[in-house]
Structure formats: structure tokens, C-alpha cells
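Quick illustration, no need to memorize.
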Amino acid sequence: MRMALIPVFASFLYYGYIGWALIFFLIAGISDGVDGFIARKFKQESELGTILDPIADKLLMTTAFIVLTMPDVQAPVRVPFWVTAAVIGRDVLIVTVAGAIHIMTGFRGFQPSWLGKLSTTVQVAAVALILLSAVFGYTFYLRATHLIVVLFAFASGIHYIFYVARLMKDEEK
């Protein structure tokens, strides 16, 4: 469902319907939490779900940051390019490192790290705060929000490299 909401969210955001974009973003975020809770509570976790869930998260966040960075978007606030580059760069780094490790060693035990999950949570909160600032006109906290997103993206990207190294060592034992 989250993946189906992404083009709806992006369209509302692009054309300046920020309130609607915020509503669909919140629906996507809440559905992520509810889906995860139900899967864990009723032991309905599946291999497909463990693959699609982070993909849906990344697609939603990447779309949100790209659209909020585009100069011709009719939103009253913009995300600086360096913030979007950090968010996407982190994901590119992780996928590249994981792909290289898999090709060289055959290792497949990649798992999300706690700092990576926290970074994604920070990104979700940041997009919600950015959209709220566009709806209500409060922008005083945006610079701090941008900086926090970048710091978490950088820290979690570096952390993930060491985290995977530890996972690989643990698998060798």
C-alpha cells in the first residue's frame, strides 16, 4: 500500500497541495508502523515482506527528498540539495558496499542496524516537520532539521560498514 501511495503523495507535493501531501505521507508512515506491528504480533513476517518493507521506506523517503529539492515544485519550502544528496548518498553507499561484499564473499546476512533504523525514523520525522512548516508557516527549525538528517545519514552510513563487518565475523564462527 505504501508503494501505491508514493505517486499520490509526490503528485500532491509537486503541485503544491501540501496539506494533502502531508496527509498521504502520514498515512504511509502510519501504515508502515501498523504493518510491522501486525506482522510481528501475529508472527506473519515473510521473506517478501522483509524485502519490500525497506524498499518501500527508501522509495518514499527518496521521493520526498527529491521532490522537496526540485526548484519548480510549488511547495513554499525547499530542502537544500546537500541534504538530499546525503540521504541518497547513504543509501547508495550501503547498497554498493553490500553488493561488493556479496560478489566477493557470497555473504547474504545483511540486516538493518539500529542506527540505520534510527536514521530512517529521523528522515520520516524531518519530512513530516518540513511539510508541517509548509502548511503552518513555521520555518525556524528547518536548518536544525536539515543538519540532524545529514548527521544521522552520515553516521549510519559509516556505522553500517562496521556493522556488516561484525556480522560477517559472527557468521564465520
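The mean pLDDT is 90.
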